[in-house]
Amino acid sequence: MTENLSGYSLPQLKQLRVRIEKEIAKQELAGKASVLKKLQKLARAHGMTLDEVLGATAQVKPVKAVSKAPAVPKAPVPVKYRHPSKQDLAWSGRGRRPQWVETWLSNGGALDALMISAQKFEKKLQRKADASKSAPKVVAAVSQDAGETEAAATTE
Fold first, then answer.
1. What is the pLDDT of residues 6-15, one digit of tens each?
2. Phi, psi of 60 (to 5 degrees)
3. Domain boundaries in the chain?
4. Which of 8, 52, 108, 118 is least buried, going by the fewest C-beta atoms within 10 A?
5. How far is CA 137 from CA 44, 91, 120, 140, in A?
6. 3-class secondary structure, 103
């Protein structure tokens, strides 16, 4: 059944491939029809219809969907760019540029200037947080002799 195909041109080979694919589909369909007729005869011989036979085997328990683990909430993305005069306008640098960034750039501003502004603001916030952490704490000391309470400022 081996045939030397090297003598065919490319268009002839493509045409041959199309004819082969059509013949394969035709034979598959004929084979299925033949099997279907045999199954119908066999079912009738046992006093059943093909639907009854196939319906009994088709009632397989459905597979349960695999449940996904709950999504872990992601931390917010830190701000990289902040407007120098309007501190509430901030952008993480991800996604499309906000309108205020586009306006800033169209007016001749540099994106680096916004980044520096954001870094300054973050440093300012960090200083405030550090200051609140290092504020003197009032510790109550109880004198064992007199049972009196004294307040003393200490830094820890």
1. 888 999 999 9
2. -90, 145
3. 10-57, 78-156
4. 108
5. 94, 37, 28, 10
6. helix
